[in-house]
Structure formats: structure tokens, C-alpha cells
Design a protein that fits this description.
The longest helix is centred in the N-terminal third of the chain and has 17 residues, at 62-78. This protein is α/β, with parallel strands linked by helices. The strands form 3 sheets. Strands 1-2-5-6-7-8-10-12 form an 8-stranded mixed sheet. The protein contains 8 helices and 12 strands.
Length: 289
């Protein structure tokens, strides 16, 4: 049975396609793993990928990818996969999601792959049901026209982006193992907001016995406020604030400690109060523990 604590990529014995029970999406997500070599340009300390390496994905076998996707969607929609693998409260597809074992937009032909997925969703009437195609990304390749085209396709077909920002200060070097560049992050986020409805996905925790400081909170909040201030602010749907509740396989994962429920809820309220939302705003901050 699928559960929120186990997101094994081989759950369906396929190469690129895997099902998970997603606590943030709230049901069965059809995962798409383009990084089958377990390579990513980031190395977040909370990452659940075992034997993660730095780098980019290998080329995708598009024929096999399309065959697997159509096969699995047929099993889920017309077969008994959900009945046999999910509890009765979660026997429904809530999305298709580019996630997997690394940064999906690093794939060289990402736009072509998005088109294949959308065609399969159309074939099985998922687009008419407004089942979203989601892209979970660190946003670092949004400067590429290939990636921009793909995100535009996602946005035009009821999809959305989950844009990772865990910190907005120099602690990114510790948390995500990349250098902090405020200008690049803001520029990539703004471009994403122009192309698709977007959630900011934030993993928040104590690290190496250090609770995030007030300064770190404020720098993060200022990033959100700046994103809301531009002309495309309606595309920023909100924040998915979550705690790392699955095992990290990274060396520094042992330095992670969960913050209290009270802390997370107070941080949520601080975000909402700080961005000065008006009564008609649909902006949300959702917490997952």
C-alpha cells in the first residue's frame, strides 16, 4: 500500500513513471522521474534520494517514456491499481508531477517531454477533468527558452509550478549546497510567474542546532513580498511550507531537526501578516508536517 513516508521510484516496476501518496497534493500523484541516474545540480540536505550525485540527467528514451506513461495511466484509470494499492480515502489521481531523483528541467528536451505528457493526459480525459500537471523545480534553468516554453505549456493546460525556495540568504550553501544569488532567484521566479500559476515550496527546519533566525525569516518574507508586488502577482498562489518528515540520505541529513508545530504556525502567520494581503487575495500558506 502506498503511504506518505515511502516514495520509492520502482513502486510500479517502471523506469520513468512511479506512483506516490503525496501529503502536499492530498492523494495519489503519478510521478515522472527524468533523473534515473540520480543526478541533480543541487544536493539539498533533506533529499531522500539515496546515492545522489551532482550533475544532469541522461538522455530520455522517449518511446519507452511514452509507452510507460500510457500503460500506467490505463492501469490507474481503467484497471484496479488504485483499489489494490491505495486506501479507500485516496483512490483518486490528484496530479501528474515532474519530480523524481533530480532537477527535471535539466533534461535537454524538456519541452518535448511536457508535450508527450499533455497528449497522454488528453487521451485519458485528465485535462478535461482539470487534473493538473505539476512541475517541482529549483528554478535554476528558467533562463533557458526550452524550459520557459515547457512551463508555458503547463500553465496553459491547468497546470502549475512548485518553485523551491528553502532559504533566501547565504544559508543556501548549507541547505541546498549552492551559492546564494538573490538576483538570479528573483529573476527566475518572476519569469515563472509570467508563464504559469506557481506555488513557492519551502522546507523549513532546524539545522546543525540552529533555528532559522529572525533575519533569515525576514529575508525570505521580503522575497515573497517582492514576488507579490509585480504585475503577475495573481499567478503566485501561495506557499507550501513543510517539514522534512522522510529520511534524508545525504551526509548532513543527521543535522536536521524538526521545528515545533507552534513555531511553524507562528511563521505562517508572520508571512501572512507581513505581505499585507487584502481581503480579496487568494494567496495561501499551507503547512505540512
Amino acid at each position: 500500500m502506498l503511504d506518505v513516508y515511502n516514495h520509492q521510484r520502482d513502486a510500479a516496476n517502471l523506469t520513468y513513471i512511479y506512483p506516490v501518496l503525496s501529503r502536499r497534493a492530498g492523494g495519489i500523484s503519478v510521478g515522472i522521474n527524468l533523473n534515473i541516474n540520480r543526478k541533480c545540480n543541487w544536493a539539498c540536505v533533506y533529499c531522500q534520494v539515496e546515492n545522489l550525485q551532482r550533475g544532469n540527467p541522461e538522455s530520455i528514451n522517449l518511446t519507452l517514456f511514452q509507452e510507460e506513461l500510457n500503460y500506467f495511466l490505463n492501469e490507474v484509470i481503467n484497471g484496479d491499481f488504485l483499489k489494490n494499492n491505495a486506501d479507500k480515502d485516496h483512490q483518486k489521481i490528484v496530479d501528474l508531477a515532474f519530480s523524481g531523483d533530480g532537477e527535471p528541467t535539466a533534461t535537454s528536451n524538456f519541452s518535448e517531454i511536457v508535450t508527450i505528457v499533455l497528449n497522454s493526459m488528453h487521451k485519458y480525459n485528465l485535462l478535461t477533468q482539470k487534473i493538473p500537471l505539476r512541475l517541482i523545480t529549483n528554478g535554476s534553468f528558467l533562463y533557458k527558452s526550452e524550459v520557459q516554453n515547457a512551463i508555458s505549456l503547463i500553465g496553459k493546460n491547468h497546470g502549475e509550478v512548485w518553485f523551491k525556495i528553502d532559504r533566501f540568504d547565504d544559508s543556501m550553501k548549507q541547505i541546498n549546497k549552492v551559492n546564494f544569488n538573490a538576483e538570479n532567484i528573483s529573476k527566475n521566479l518572476q519569469k515563472c510567474l509570467e508563464l504559469s500559476p506557481t506555488w513557492i515550496q519551502t522546507c523549513w527546519f532546524e539545522f546543525d542546532n540552529n533555528i532559522p533566525t529572525e533575519t533569515q525569516q525576514n529575508m525570505y518574507i521580503n522575497c515573497i513580498k517582492n514576488a507579490l508586488s509585480n504585475d503577475k502577482k495573481n499567478n503566485l498562489k501561495g506557499i507550501l511550507l513543510y517539514a522534512p518528515n522522510r529520511k534524508s540520505y545525504q551526509q548532513d541529513g543527521v543535522k536536521i531537526k524538526l521545528l515545533s508545530k507552534n513555531y511553524m504556525e507562528e511563521f505562517r502567520e508572520k508571512i501572512l501578516q507581513s505581505v499585507n494581503l487584502n481581503a480579496n487575495s487568494n494567496f495561501e500558506v499551507k503547512i505540512s508536517f
